[in-house]
Amino acid sequence: MIARTGGWIAAALLALAIGIFPYLGDLLDTRFPTSYELRLVMRAMILGIVVIGLNILVGFAGLVSLGQAALMGLGAHAAALLALRADWPFAACLAASVLVPALMGAVLAFPTVRVRALYLTVITIAFGFVFVNVLREWVSFTGGASGLASIPRPTLFGERLMATRAAGFNYYYLIAVCLMLALWVQWALARSRYGRAMRATAESENAARALGINVTATRTLAFAISAGLAGLGGGLFANLALFVNYETFTFSASIELLLMTILGGSGTLAGPVVGTAVLFAASQALQGLQEWQTFAYGALLALVLFLMPEGIVGGLARLRAKLAGRGAQERQTGAWPHFVPGFDALTQDRDEPGQATLITRDLTLRFGGLTAVNMVDMEVRSGTVHALIGPNGAGKSSLLNVVSGFYRASAGTVTLFGQAVKDQPPHVLARLGVARSFQNTELFGRMTVLENVLVGCHIRYQATLAETLLRLPRFLREERERLAEARLLLEVVGLTDFAGEQARNLPFGHQRRLEIARALALRPKLLLLDEPAAGLTHGEIEDLVALIRGLAARGMTVILVEHHVEMIMAVSDRVTVLDHGEVIADGPPEQVQDDRAVIEAYFGHGAPAAQATVPAQ
Amino acid sequence: MEAILQYLLTGLSVGSVYAMVGLGFYVMWSAAKAVNFNFGDIVMLGAVLTVVLMDVGVPLLPACLGAVAAAALLAAAIERGFVRPFNREANAIGWMLTTIAVGTMIESATTALFGSNPRRLETPLVEAPLRIGGSGIYPQELLLPVALLVVAVGLEFFYRRTITGRAMRAVAYNRTAAGLVGIDADRMTLLSFGLAGLLGALSGVLIGPVIQASATMGAIIGLKGFLVAIIAGIANARGVVIAGVLYGVSEKFIEAYLSTAARDAIGFSLMVLLLLLFPQGLFGKAEFKKV
């Protein structure tokens, strides 16, 4: 809470400082700032806007662009060319300077990020290179090295925009307003499902997909927004300098922008402003280095990455947390499952009783020559707990991964909730009501416990991006409701006191609880648990059994991959046994326990049935 | 007809460089699932260091060998110092930033020390062009495809027949499992970056006489090599070789029939389009992401 108020105070102070800067001379009775200093501050504010965009990309979505200067140049040239060649009014030019790069960003991002985040970086380098190349060579259109000069001075509502006293420094204040808007966008994104989805995809792509997040779309959106802000900076720059050419938008300018982002603290809200201010000031000094200036940028970037990877703001925040941590209060781990009154409302989405929630027919999955799942027919009734067991390598997890859409079946059909779903990606299945946990817990480690659960609520937001950024009523209502839900789910798993803790700092057992709470936030009709008891203590397993039975009692269907036989006997309604990818037994637990084939699968041929039912620990 | 032969040969020549650089990216990626982003600088150093060594009186061949060895060592050192510490988590992006930082330092330091003007790298193979019909081509340019062939076959042999090569493949396939059977995965990664550096620096030495040595020569070659590797499907060596050569040849035809100025714009747009159509690359198999 303190941090939040602090943020608002800092933003207000920044606005105040920027606001009085042009009139500083009147207060101090000196000739300062001159038009030169005013211009420097305007350029710094413009860079700040671009760096905020880059921070959304690097700090939130975990993607790196090395063509950000070129995207800024694209915005600058769009604005300049439309003003020069098409006589567009300033406002329209500025809008184009946002939209053209944003569109270009989407075009560059979509083909690349769906394969590998890394590819985007390579393509942005290529884009930057081609952009400069085109500007230099296409002289008739862009003026080549002599650039586009004599861009008409911008006017808005009949006012000529200038940074002079006579004009009331109106262009200066326009840039300042744009900077504040960019900060607002960054803040509004960060505290919304969009920002959380971006950070989630950066932390764990698999977990994000399992929670219904379209990873490609999220990354494309992040880059489009980032490119749009770069373009806005470019458009403002073109109308400030009234001249553009390619020399401003080279690869080394992109590196400088990246350095500002990292130096300030990527992923923090204040980082872009701090990083831009510090580096911009330093670069005025570094200009004396001439040919070694670029070297200094490289060295500085390396230095920051080694010594304070979280940047100035991130480093300070850590320091403060350390100091505050000394007086931290005891945190109580609650008993779980704690089915609080509101919980029933969260589990109302269920498949109709008696239906087959999941049916697989002849389901087969091959990896090259290895058949991991072989002609599996399986039927799971709604509201039951269905265990999937078998020796190591029997294909249990593979089957789970096919059902949740992570692996593509080689043959056969999957029917979920009465709907054929073959080859649907995980995020689509999640939207149908399938949630899952992972064998190796996949939390969003750098997000807080509460944020992890909120990501689970992602698909149940209706508010659009515009509503979110403008903080319209629907967004506010939804956010309030989801927050209440998330807190309730944390209470159910007994983690209320840990809500503000980073997920990676939780002890292992708590991480398992959190992963389940996050999956429940999806309000699944079918919950897939992949070895949820692995690594848990005896007491924790008993709690887990109680939770699973409680969920089934509320109509949720649960499929459980597990080794822990005692637990399976206690919790399941039905058991399917796999061996070498094939179903070797299927039935109620007591029956499967005595099945000859099952015993042989676990112990080999000739195991005396009298001695060994499947071991109960 | 002769013109077409000329484009084919020069295209083959420049394409061989892209392919060799692309192979460097392939080798790095296989081992580390990370690369030296400014690998082009290793290419550049191969050529520039040769010139520097020859300046101080070292004869051509020892100078080439010395330059390649030094650049490869540097490539390995970059892995140890700048990639490994920043590639510990699954989704790490730190190594991108650090290798970009170190690449920027190398390139700007070279510009400052070596000068910003390109320098000739004299070899006997660029003294007189061979006449093919009306046009000429340097023997040096013809050396490049030969070198590519040797490098590609050598790499295949190394990966399949030597114990170190096999260990590298094991690491590429499954790092943890390779560790469990006693392979020092970190050491293999270091060696892989050194090996990639060898390929990169060699291609720099070989192309240097044709395009002249300069501090900035590596950036574009490195970028194209990377794109070629991506388009091929980064985990497929043969695909990288084919894609590299094809890209080189198409460049020459674009230059000849469309526009020299727009060559890279067209080439890169083509790459983006290909990636749109073939997300896994032209020769890559649909990737299996383990969950």
TrEMBL record, chain A:
Membrane-spanning segments: 6-24, 45-68, 88-110, 117-135, 171-190, 221-246, 258-282, 294-317
Span of domain ABC transporter: 358-605
Subcellular location, principal: membrane
Compartment(s): Cell membrane
CDD domains: ABC_Mj1267_LivG_branched (cd03219), TM_PBP1_LivM_like (cd06581)
InterPro entries: AAA+_ATPase, ABC_AA/LPS_Transport, ABC_transp_permease, ABC_transporter-like_ATP-bd, BCA_ABC_TP_C, LivM-like, P-loop_NTPase
Annotated membrane topology: Multi-pass membrane protein
Taxonomic path: Bacteria, Pseudomonadati, Pseudomonadota, Alphaproteobacteria, Acetobacterales
Identification of the protein by name: ABC transporter domain-containing protein
Protein's UniProt keywords contain Transmembrane: yes
PANTHER family to which the protein is assigned, alphabetical: AMINO ACID ABC TRANSPORTER ATP-BINDING PROTEIN, CONSERVED COMPONENT OF ABC TRANSPORTER FOR NATURAL AMINO ACIDS-RELATED
Swiss-Prot/TrEMBL keywords: ATP-binding, Cell membrane, Membrane, Nucleotide-binding, Transmembrane, Transmembrane helix, Transport
Superkingdom, natural source: Bacteria
A Pfam family the protein falls into: BPD_transp_2
Gene3D superfamilies: P-loop containing nucleotide triphosphate hydrolases
From TrEMBL, chain B:
Spans traversing the lipid bilayer: 6-28, 60-78, 90-114, 142-159, 190-211, 226-249, 261-283
UniProt KW Transferase keyword: no
Alphabetic keyword roster: Amino-acid transport, Cell membrane, Membrane, Transmembrane, Transmembrane helix, Transport
Presence of keyword Ribosomal protein: no
Topology of the protein relative to the lipid bilayer: Multi-pass membrane protein
A family per Pfam: BPD_transp_2
Predominant cellular place of this UniProt entry's protein: membrane
Intracellular or extracellular location(s): Cell membrane
Family membership noted in the UniProt record: Belongs to the binding-protein-dependent transport system permease family. LivHM subfamily.
Record protein name field: Branched-chain amino acid ABC transporter permease
